[in-house]
Amino acid sequence: MNSKARKCIGYGLLLFIFVMGMAIAAFYDLELSSALAGLSEMDGTLSLDVPPYAAALEIIGEWPAVLICAAALLIAASVLSDNHRKRAGFFYITAGGIAACLLLYGSVQTANSLVDYVPDILWAVLAACCLLLAAAGLIFIRKIPQKIRKRLFLPAVFTLAAALLILLSVSALKMLWGRLRLRELVALGSLDGFTPWYVPNFFSGSHSFPSGHTAHCTLTLMLPSWLPEKNKRARGVLTALLAIFIGVMGISRLAAGAHYLSDVLFGFSIAFVITEWMKHVLRQKQQERSA
Question: How many Cα atoms occupy the beta-carbon half-sphere of 238 within 13 Å?
């Protein structure tokens, strides 16, 4: 069986799992999330018993995409600076600034998950640290041999394109669907506001559907394309490890009371289609260059 046939079978299997999962979720979304998140009621008050692993993964869940995008930006900037030395300063400042903003975003998300209040001076310190980290990252990337950085240029660019498409599509759906999270329902003291995935609430202000954490973690599937094409075994091992990580992240979103099964499946599916599309176009571009 050739690689194309194996890929078609893999796509078919994933499509079957998605359809079956969404069908199951149409009936048991609330029950599954409630069980994993430890939903209980005492004296008419609802509460969740979130497992520690789910709380931990919620804190770090945005970081893989943040770090990948920051690295991709700095790699792309270093190669563009090599090719256009007169505009090197512009590329470095722009990429470094955006990378620092990404790191600051990750830091803000982490801080908000850990504490209720952060003094203004600490935000300033965090911003300064992110700028320093971005500068250090750029210096480190400049130490990588130019030949390797040139090879990484296209994978980095297409990873950034995938990240942007995932962000826009998931954010748009979140705002449009307006689905309430389980923990929001618990905070309201009633599960009456629950809606199945096929019933949108249209701009309610809630953002359960689809899962952003799962979608952003799925961006990591672009990483195997950063490895040399001849390292097929390394690519396969890395893909398997990333698939496990994405699966654990998806389960943790249910256990955190943040999402339902349908949210996770749809978030993964959107990001998977985008990453596979970007990898396909990337391979075509690489073949054109080597021809």
Answer: 15
Evaluate whether residue 9 is within a structural domain: no
- Give the tens place of pLDDT for each residue, 99-155: 999 999 999 888 888 887 878 888 899 999 999 999 999 999 999 999 999 999 999
pLDDT tens-digit readout, 158-195: 999 999 999 999 999 999 999 999 999 999 999 999 99
Amino acid identity of 67?
Answer: L
User: Of all residues in the chain, what percent carry a pLDDT higher than 70?
Assistant: 99
How does 242-279 read in b/e, with b if 16+ C-beta sit within 10 Å?
Answer: beeebeebbbbbbbbbbbbbbbbbbbbbbbbbbbbebb
pLDDT of residue 235: 95
In a domain, 3, yes or no: no
CB atoms within 10 A of CB 118: 14
Tokens of 37: 């998140």
Classify each residue of 223-234 as buried b or exposed e, where b means 16 or more C-beta atoms within 10 Å of its C-beta.
bbbbbeeeeeee
Cα–Cα dist 140/149, whole Å: 12
Range of the domain at 168: 41-290
31 within a domain of the structure (yes/no): no
Q: Is the residue at 17 inside a domain?
A: no
Give pLDDT, residue 164: 98
Find the length of the chain.
Answer: 291
Q: Give me the amino acid identity at 194.
A: F
Closest CA to 37 of 21, 62, 54: 54
Q: DSSP H helical segments within 144-203, as ranges?
A: 146-177, 182-188
Report the domain count for the chain.
Answer: 1
